[in-house]
Amino acid sequence: MNFNLCQKILSPQQIQLLDQMTIKTEPIPSIDLMERASEAFVSSFIQSYPRDRSVVVVAGTGNNGGDGMAIARLLVEQGYKVEAFVVGKPEKGSKDFQANHAVLKAYCSCDIIASKEDFPVLDSAVVVVDALFGSGLSRAVSGLFGELIDYLNEQSLEAVAVDIASGLGCDQVFEGGRILRVSQTITFEVPKYTQLLAEFEPYVGELNVVNIGLDLRQMEASITQRYFVTPQFITSLFRSKSKYAHKGTAGRCLLLVGSQGKMGAAVLAARACLRSGAGLLTTYIPQSGNQIMQIAVPEAMTITSPSLDVLSHSPDLDGYHAVGIGPGLGMEKETGMMVKAILVDSALPLVLDADALNIIARENSASLIPRGSVLTPHPGEFKRLVGDWKNDFEKLEKQRAFSREYQVVVVLKGANSSITDLEGNIFFNSSGNPGMATGGSGDVLTGIITAFLGQGYGGLEAALLATYLHGLSGDLALEHGSTETLIASDLINFLPRAFRKAQTRPS
After folding, report:
1. Which of 188, 216, 317, 356 could form a disulfide with 326 if both were Cys (CB 3.0 to 4.6 A apart)?
2. Residues 240 and 208 grouped into a single domain
3. In this predicted model, what pLDDT tens digit does every residue of 38-93 receive, in sequence order?
4. Residue 442 annotated as binding site
5. How far apart are CA 59 and CA 86, in angstroms?
6. Angle made by CA atoms 217, 219, 220, in degrees to the nearest 5
């Protein structure tokens, strides 16, 4: 896998070095690189905000403030009504800030904020462009800057952050500092770690990453274990099917799914598995669910458990290329014994989801999970496995530690689902939308991952491909509906389009 096809998530120091190397090796004057970044920001901004919206730019006197000065000028050139405000003394600002500040005076008003009395009076229709602090912030925001952030937050206005919301660190939170709430962030070249974590959503809003042409060689040389998945990376993972493939070689998959009242989860996982390329699918289900499965998914074969309403007694796993366990399973005692027996006996990595994970947590049997297996918990299930956490930073460190300790791939589901591998690398998914927060969505993901494992993909490849396609299918479904109307079956119905789009290499 070529991780350089992902967007690397870098530290503030690495981002600063990337800027410096671009300036040195291109070569390009720093103020011209600032202009390039500002142009990229404005190109993205005008896609969201019409020219009849008034804009107020609030800026510091560092390089992020320099971006703000250039952005204000470019927006005026685009036909926007713009006012600019600078906190601090312009004559003490960075060299590039001073240059852009001097030019801006010919385009629009640019007032100095020296006290609370200088805060702008804002109309409710105004869009605020936040250029107070950038990615180099190293301390909590307080004083006059903090008071301005509090004031802007109280206005409940739409705000767009330049690179990162003021007060938010790239990879940390500064205790006691103020952070500006924004509706959108237009960030440069690479996403920042905090911008991908759920607890910081109020300070990120809609995230747009814009390319500003930073040095590619330095980017590739930057070492990280954090990545943001790109369409190009996903396309590179696909393998072509041999023209001599047949159903027996295209993936023989087994799903252990369902219980009384939860056969819907079994059906969703089975349909998703078949729709994702599995050559042959067998479902191991309770006797009471056999007719449901045979009618709902005629392409799937069935084996029934000795028990009427739950799964018990491990089936023979020989001959299968991949085994998925969990959707609709239930947590009866005999089901728990079956799961433990499979963990002990399986010669294959497994896909473990839902109640399979709850049983493992209950029985404290994580050490029995076969190496290379893929686990797909939602936060509640993951908490049962690893215990509670104080914040998202600690949650993700627990995820990385779990993957390393037990040598498994973990897909922690949610917005920007995080995927950790056996070495502790972490990948954030870039597809999907809030409409996918619906019952059965996780069952679909289990089916997709199982299908990829069955086709010979490794656990990490299967998890990355499946998670991205799962989200992309949701995005395509959303084009024909809304977040309120999306259901899990829609994800399966749009998988063919998602596969086609993801497999298409850019021309």
Report:
1. 356
2. no
3. 999 999 999 999 999 999 999 999 999 999 999 999 999 999 999 999 999 999 99
4. yes
5. 5
6. 65
